[in-house]
Amino acid sequence: MPAIVLIGAQWGDEGKGKVTDLLGEQVHYVVRYSGGNNAGHTVITPDGQKYALHLMPSGALSPNAMIVIGNGVVVDPKVLLEEIDGLAERGVDVSRLRISGDAHLIMPHHRALDRVVERYLGSARIGTTGRGIGPAYGDKVARMGIRLQDLLDPGILRKKLELALREKNQMLFKVYNRKALDVDAVTEEYLEYAKRLRPYIAETRTILWDALDRGETVLLEGAQATMLDMDHGTYPFVTSSNPTAGGACVGAGIPPTAITKVIGVTKAYTTRVGSGPFPTELHDENGMHLRKVGVEYGTTTGRERRTGWFDAVVARYATRLNGITDLVVTKLDVLTGLEKVPICVGYEIDGERFDDMPMTQTGFHHATPIYEEHDGWWEDITKARTEAELPENARRYIARIEELCGTRVSVVGVGPGREENVVRHPLL
Predict the structure, then answer these.
(1) Which residue among the candidates 28, 54, 110, 140 is catalytic per the annotation?
(2) In this model, does residue 41 exceed pLDDT 70?
(3) Model confidence, pTM
(4) Do 411 and 313 share a domain, yes or no?
């Protein structure tokens, strides 16, 4: 059986958690391979219960799947333990969780620096969540990070922390006029986390290799999305990892030859959180309509999401970059009641038309969308379960997205619930 990658095809918040939960009962392992608790997945179960997950893979809500946090994730142990406890209190079996010993830890100095640097940047700020993700990845690349396996060796943990704080405390105190962190207090705090996390820490690569050898299905779940990828997104307004399909191999230790399907998730319109270019962004009543009806507020931050029309240039870029074999288009129901539903099919930059992503950051910042207008629909589509039950104009809209992206639309979301989907082609 295959390894399957599930990725966001826009700027995040596309509904990946819902799709992971939808597939969870059909797969054996669900693996989170990138990001930290700067991302969130909202899942609504058939009985109406709502779960907001930040570090735990969305497959946690599927009773049979093993859940894995891979080496590519940065882990705040306090947040993870709170999430584990919250799920356990609601009857979710968390004993299935395994965390890579090579995953890096978010430390107090990472959070402190993230917040103070973002404030210091002022109007040039990136729009981070202030949870320490960027600084943790920075230390990982600088080869001075602290990993989960270090929690199992108090001597190594303290030695690495002393080395890190020798520099970080200088920055906090002398550059930003903040209080220095105490080595003893941080060491004691993290050794307490170690007592509880020890049963979950494992060599997850071997676990996943053995699962694939047995013919079991592994679903690789990315946080954030394509346009927030460190290398391929709208740099510098990006996350600090690689949530694209290629990042799944690095962040989970899965060989590329094991991946047989890439599922891309996109909204029927576009949103993004934080700063950065957004060609189809709306500042009118249509943008307010999308935000209100779509309940566009961040799962992790609660921040208002910026909203805009569907951008086929971005979606086609994501399709080609990730090798997307199947698209899931979510929140089609949010567009119900609009007289016209535009799709951005290209950009105009300095009088020149671009049908693909412009090469430069400056070009993308100055891109003016070229729209193709489609007639809207007024029928309630939340009860539709087959394509024939969708209004003709909604079917035409989806068909045009499929044509512009160059890959098939397999599932259309018509509501927030797990079962509120039109399945055009089975994902598994």
Answers:
(1) 140
(2) no
(3) 0.91
(4) yes
